[in-house]
Write a structure and sequence with these properties.
Elements (H helix, E strand, L loop, with lengths): L1 H21 L4 H27 L6 H4 L9 H8 L2 H28 L4 H13 L1 H19 L9
Helix pairs in contact: 1-2, 1-5, 2-5, 5-6, 5-7, 6-7
Length: 156
């Protein structure tokens, strides 16, 4: 069961990433990636999180590592010592990385970066989410300053 869910989540995320990188990004595609991509992964994560951490499925995720919880390294290790726990964790990564990729793509389009600049950043975000996001922060900085409102001041 877990191998199938893991594989299905991977395929779905890869399809969304391929669409985000390769297809024209109109409002429809962005909505599909946001709701059917990120949203569906978030739903799967939430349901599986409750089922796994509640001990309804894959009791090894709760019993392994001396009491699974999110407050200690041993507790988190206990969750990840089961196929269910790994699947839930992986879907978590897939959902958040896809959300970050969608934000990067929208931001890059708004700032008129070419797809040739965007593609490697999006691929890095797909493979190593925070590293791709960090790279995007660095790349976008100069253009973000140029396109920012001129003369805008923070008022207190």
């Amino acid at each position: 069961m877990w191998d199938s869910l893991f594989g299905l989540a991977n395929l779905w995320a890869m399809a969304c990433w391929a669409a985000l990188i390769l297809l024209p990004r109109g409002a429809f595609l962005q909505s599909v990636v946001f709701y059917a991509g990120v949203g569906l992964l978030c739903l799967a994560y939430a349901v599986l999180l409750v089922l796994v951490t509640g001990g309804f499925v894959d009791a090894n995720a709760v019993d392994g590592g001396g009491g699974a919880n999110f407050t200690t390294i041993e507790g988190v290790r206990g969750i990840f010592m089961s196929d269910g726990g790994v699947t839930v964790g992986w879907i978590h990564y897939l959902a958040l990385d896809l959300f970050a990729g969608l934000w990067i793509a929208k931001d890059a389009d708004q700032k008129q970066f070419s797809r040739w600049v965007q593609a490697p950043v999006l691929l890095l975000t797909f493979v190593a989410g925070p590293a791709g996001l960090l790279l995007w922060f660095i790349i976008r900085e100069r253009r973000a300053r140029k396109t920012g409102r001129k003369g805008a001041r923070i008022r207190s």
